[in-house]
């Protein structure tokens, strides 16, 4: 059954590819619009690389969300082909008004998916074929599918960078992601080997590297330098040297002890061997793009993806450094302050600029570390003057019990003149500040209903 559904998705992607090909044949500039997170930036990167390979021209814009005012601006543009990556499925009514042809390469669940579309719009989204866009394919993956018939297996690695960014790698890749993985391995673009997944292990002293390691999380160590030092002292390994400087025997001891804390710390590591060293590891590549997006430097991220690297990588690495420091401080903050608990949800709140951009990520990490109760979805609230930006995160277990934060935030925000949506496990919204308490109570109520139905 899945095979058949995947086949239908691939057929739709092929239709999109033919449309793209017709515009490239006529030398039209391709208008690409994508999302400002790691997945969206790599999705745009996949598109641009594929267009460039066909000697085509493109014009890219990376935005945080597709709002009515963005669409109003695109309505004035004279491009003959618009491509929306990692967004668009929730904006069909607006997109239908564009004058040119349109390809939507998205993986978000959508309420207006039943909207009648004309032939000039090709909508590629796994949810339209009952496939799982939260786990099985990301925005960069759907973008990859739409250029795959042009012979783009060299982009399989970049397509999985977005899947890592959207946290779709669990104990492996599944569904379309697995197919992309196979494309990459078969064509030599991707290599996979088992190893310890310690972040920045060749660049930082071991205690720091361990405290920066959040994927997977290490309880008592992630975000906690003192915890990392204590752990290393206990197992008799000096904390000040780099992982790469350890003897093989020390590496074995470290591995055995870390696996006791979290078995996922030893597992498959994905690399693009032909990439420059800073981008070889797909998870590190994704972190770099994520840091660019979270700092509103999406242009640097995109430059990296399309091969204009001279200064971009160095610039991005500075952003990574400040980003990971912010995460460490954020983890300490959550450990200290905890969350405000309601019946069915919990929330954290900030007005601090450096925290605002990482509130969603902090919620995920807090749940993984269990410094936030995994049994209640987390709403992370960031105040921006008169509005509140909301990031919702929960666990696979809660989604299996019926929680769908995408629908909860979409419905609740609409009741207060806001907007929202996303995936069952991770979603976002914007609501007026004065409605914050009412909004939280309504989400609490919706989650209660979801759990009881
Ligand atoms: O808009 P987009 O789909 O790219 O973003 C998905 C978001 O959901 C990302 O912020 C990602 O980190 C988050 N996510 C999560 N936990 C998951 C899956 C996704 O926090 N298990
Ligand atoms: O949820 P959001 O998109 O903000 O999280 C984005 C980034 O945080 C991703 O790159 C993801 O890999 C990282 N992350 C992580 N480990 C966690 C939570 C998030 O690496 N436990
Ligand atoms: O902003 P954040 O990382 O919390 O977003 C999580 C998910 O919710 C993403 O997939 C994002 O595209 C989606 N979202 C949305 N509408 C919003 C805010 C976020 O669909 N207003
Ligand atoms: Zn995405």
UniProtKB/TrEMBL annotation:
SUPFAM superfamilies: DHH phosphoesterases (SSF64182). Transmembrane segments: none annotated. InterPro entries: DDH_dom, DHH_CID, DHH_sf, DHHA1_dom, SSDNA_exonuclease_RecJ. Residues 375-448 form the DHHA1 domain. GO terms for molecular function: exonuclease activity; nucleic acid binding. Pfam families: DHH, DHH_CID, DHHA1. Residues 30-147 form the DDH domain. Residues 203-260 form the DHH-CID domain. This is Phosphoesterase RecJ domain protein.
